[in-house]
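Self-study notes.
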Amino acid sequence: MTENVGNVGTVETKYYTFGNSPKELTLESGEKREPITLAYETYGKLNQKKSNAILVLHALSGDAHAAGLHKGDKRPGWWDTMIGSEKALDTEKYFVVCSNVLGGCKGSTGPSSTNPKTGKPYGTKFPIITIQDMVSAQRRLIDHLGIDKLLTVIGGSMGGMQVLQWMIYYPDRIGSAIPIATTMKHSPQQIAFNEVGRQAIMADHNWNNGDYYGRSAPDRGLAVARMVGHITYMSDVSMAEKFGRRLKNHGRPFKFGTDFEVEGYLRYRSDNFVKRFDANSYLYITKAIDYFNILNGKKLSKIFKDLKAKVLVLAFKSDWLYPAYQSREIVKACKLAGVDTTYCEINSTYGHDAFLLEIKEETHLIKHFLRTVSNG
């Protein structure tokens, strides 16, 4: 599908600011925030009935730029392979919206944003946020766009968590939902991986309790956090196929450098990551992911009791970060609530990253599913 890369054309990021008193956004913690800005992009056209809108929800390191090209860029948005003419989310049919989450660092209000009360970046004075808070902010954006009911909400990983939150919090605002490679709650192991990343950032001597803006940032700590995360996104098979035990210099220099190709790859990916992501946002967003738990003592059969939407759940056999059994739990909860649900487990060797890479299979399944969905 490389010939279709960037076929939505040149796009611009837009910004919506809301929540001025007395219409502040009340966070799950009870704290009220004002004002809040969300960065967002749209692709395709909203039809006259406003019934063809799809909300794309991004993962931890994603942003509002899901498709197309920014002026002067050569690399398209992070899900460009799925959004555009004749793609899974066909912009000839659908109006696609993607926003940067609350707490992010790519245009939406987050720890690196200026606190209007002090004129300085919030840093760790930014309030703790949750997936529910992210979705509450998104709902304000959807209201602003004049959309009463979304045709579908779709996302992978943390994006899938936001999908599940929409299914619970705003069941009457969605016609369908597509959670991909996600979970209803983090396991202790999943929390542990995130905590290692957070500790790496906070151990960096440049972190300075989050007050590093205008000075050297905790780049090494954030790079290590990204390395740990990236290992969990791949599988043993995909790493063996991509790198094996190949040495970069075809020898054994016996030094602590990037001897193996996999070491060079991790350093390359992490060095690029720190150029575009804020360390404090990484702390806040991973904490929001760890706090996420839609079970919260509820019976499995009661979680989606108010949901009338159709659901497509996708998982990948080699995903060990969010194993397929966690997706099957989502399906079970939906079925117990009488929700019309389809489950597909894709045979992929890519690991968790498969939701970004298994384009052909996902496109086939999503296109077929959307043909069965109507928004009235």
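Second protein, same conventions, sequence then structure:
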Amino acid sequence: MYITHLECGLCGLEHEARRLLNLCRACGKPLLVRYDLERAQQTLTKESLASRRSDLWRYREVLPVDNDENIVSFGEGWTPLLRASRLGESIGLRELFIKDESQNPTQSFKARGMAAAVSMAKELGAKKLAVPSAGNAAGALAAYAARAGLEAFIFMPRDTPRANVVECEQTGAHVTLMDGLITDCGAEVGRRKEAEGWFDVSTLKEPYRVEGKKTLGYEVAEQLNWELPDVIIYPTGGGTGLIGMWKAFDEMERMGWIGSKRPRMVTVQAAGCAPIVRAIEEGKRFADEFPNAATTASGLRVPKAIGDFLILDALRESGGTAVSVTDEELIAATREIGAAEGVFCAPEGAACLPALRKLIDSGDVKASDRVVLFNTGSGVKYMESFATD
């Protein structure tokens, strides 16, 4: 509605907004959507939200679709921010919350990004969409593409959780399982997309998934009555959600909704695939590819993220950090969170709890801090992770 242009997240080069574009034509880095926020805030106000629809499209003026008829939606977003009192008491925190993204369509936060990306692909004339995925992004693309009447071509590692594969097959996608990691699947999409006529909707290789994900930041602010938490702990593979929230906070400040104070942003990764953690430790702007990546939390098995510098910038600017946890720790945390709060977390979301414990032990999180953990999906999709002999 109010897009002015696309802007490279690294070099700042401006690109036209009403075309199907992937990466910056100058440096090959992610493009970010920019809006005329002065115009947007004329109708998008805190007061106006009270009467708006209870999904992410309530923030319509700062979302990219021009024509309402092109919005592809299952009612994604506006997920609950649950006060985790028993869990908080057990670890010594007075204000602990879980943003439960498992209650999205397709049971994960990926629905947010794909709602925006598929809506824009439809509006801009794409017919065939392709994505590499370790699981939940594939399920979301398959569902939203089917609803939009578009074809979806999905490439997943062969050891992707079976639930994700079945989900894609049953919603009409063309599914290819490959040996290797998500990076290998991404390379296959890259090799074939031009000849096949696919538009690549990989994480941060198009500008609009991050727009759907940024609504996480708008929702947390609104649900906490416009006072941002002290700490946000976020499981990070490709990092679109964290990057999106950081963008949302900037937009909200420019519209006068919040001040300049920001949460300390914390990335959580699996010990078996922790490129952002390693980059923080080594003081690097870009993360090296993580060798021999392995973790049962398939969404965290991203050895090289194209938006790594955007993640690292947000962590450092906020005074945050990155923490790794073992698979044993995150699987144990799934049961602990479930028993205390009734939320059956995906392993990625559960990883936030052992990370929080480490931050408490190090003194980086105080008892008085208001902390939000992000559960990015439903544990139901990860039955293999909980299999017992």
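Instructor comment on the second fold: The mean pLDDT is 97.
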